[in-house]
Amino acid sequence: MPTFLxxxxxxxxxxxxxxxQTPRAGAERLMVYTAPDVLFQESLSPVATVPxxxxxxxxxxxxxxxxxxxxxxxxxxRGLLFSALEVGGVAAYVVLRQKGxxxxxxxxxxxxxxxxxxRCAPECLDPAVGTERLGEYxxxxxxxxIGKYNKFQEGWDDYTPGATELSPNRKTYVxxxxxxxxxxxxxxxxxxxxxxNHVVSAVHAALLVxxxxxxxxxxxxxxxxxxxxxxxxxxxxxxxxxxxF
Length: 245
Prior knowledge:
This protein has a domain at 56-115 and 156-223. The protein has 245 residues and is mainly alpha-helical. It has a two-stranded antiparallel ribbon. The protein has helices spanning 2-43, 56-65, 69-73, 79-114, 140-148, 168-219; strands spanning 222-231, 234-243. It is rod-shaped and about 120 Å long.
């Protein structure tokens, strides 16, 4: 009887020892495979990043629409110079156009108040007399001719027969038209400069982005690829460095 009990207890102890060792062995195996796996995951972290490449076409269009926008798209604050020129130029253009329109109204009012075709009719209205033909009332040709040609000088209310010089009102009228035309010409020249600013800014922005694009592509020729695989129950990592000439 005691011998049976001793044998039973010995068997129980051995069985418990075996079960107790099994989890530890399993834990050790888990650690063996988990540790390399963690290291492998860390080795896959990005080695290098390729910068985002922007479009020269977009930069060109942005600055063509509003000067300086393409440069800002390219990350260059110097584009604000083109923007400032655009804003200042547009403001000056509006002022000059308004000045021209105000002077034009003054010219038309002055002509209507001091010139009348009935004073020089019928000679000034006869196409057979001279080479000039009076334009339709209110037209640009009409207001230009009454101050430009002597055929219509008798229509001014202060005309003196036989005078060799322009009458005072006709001279004033010619001066007013000159000031009006000068304002409009200045506005037109400024409009041309604004258009030139659009073109220069658009080309400049496209060249900036193109230069950045080439630099980024040159940097991206160098690449490092990290890979890993499992062999015989172990993770094995590898790395490949590539440079494109």
